[in-house]
Amino acid sequence: MSSYIVHSIPGSPFGRAVLATLTEKDASFRFVPVEPRSIKAQPYLSMHPFGRVPVLEHDGFRLYETQAILRYLDRVLPTPALTPADPKAAARMDQIMGICDWYLHQGVNNIIGFQRIVRPRLLGIPCDEAIVAEAMPRAHVVCAELSRLLGTSPYLAGAQVSLADMVVGSHMDFLAQTPEWASLSAERPNLPAWLERMSARQSFQATTWDRVAEMAKAA
Ligand SMILES: N[C@@H](CCC(=O)N[C@@H](CS)C(=O)NCC(=O)O)C(=O)O
Question: Taking the complete model, does pTM exceed 0.90, yes or no?
Fold first, then answer.
């Protein structure tokens, strides 16, 4: 039996980052689907008092907050390392993971991705165009900065794939499925090229929304 248990909702970019990291490490895990309507009530709140996904369980140890989970996995499953050995590259990785939480998710993906994808697909409610338009200037700032930080490197923290790619890739792949991606990526060709590189990885192919939905059905 797998010692890693991931509680998440199919389609969650944060949940995908955890699943992709476990896949990069070739670790077996059990996926426990969380019913979206259940996350703001007990018993789920006893596992995650802020009512979010994902949650990781490992050998009786329970952890939430994606950055903490990813760093934990990188410590207990050290091969292949997903944190650069060079302190400056590691700091860049940490910075980009912070950008993902504070600027890419908050105010960009949780608006544009939610309105364009989650509302129609899961809730059957049409997109609120005004809210999406209002988020676009913030989205351009985030994409411009991630494009600048990526530069000509293959991955966000340099030559090797890192935890930053796991989490930003999961979010960016979501954003890339919206019509807004055309304008967000137009002047920044390094971003779609990097995303294509990430999407070709086995860890990303194994953790698309549809693949995670299959895991949920099989659970
Ligand atoms: N800071 C949390 C954020 C997790 C998060 O926002 N997850 C989203 C799904 S991608 C969620 O649970 N949303 C449900 C909600 O906001 O009610 C983490 O890093 O794990």
Answer: yes
Neighbours of 70 (CB within 10 A): 25
* Residues 118, 96: Cα–Cα separation, whole Å: 25
In the chain, the amino acid numbered 98 is: G
| Nearest of 157, 159, 155 to residue 204 by alpha carbon | 155
The answer to whether the CB of 76 falls within 8 A of the CB of 58 is yes
Q: What is the largest CA-CA distance in the chain?
A: 48
Mean pLDDT in the chain?
96
- State in Å: Cα 134 to ligand 1 middle: 21
Interatomic CA distance for residues 142 and 107, integer angstroms? 10
Counting as low any pLDDT under 70, the low residues of the chain are 1-2
Tell me, in angstroms, the distance from the centre of ligand 1 to residue 65's CA. Answer: 8
Give the closest residue to 15 by CA, choosing from 50, 82, 66, 59.
Answer: 66
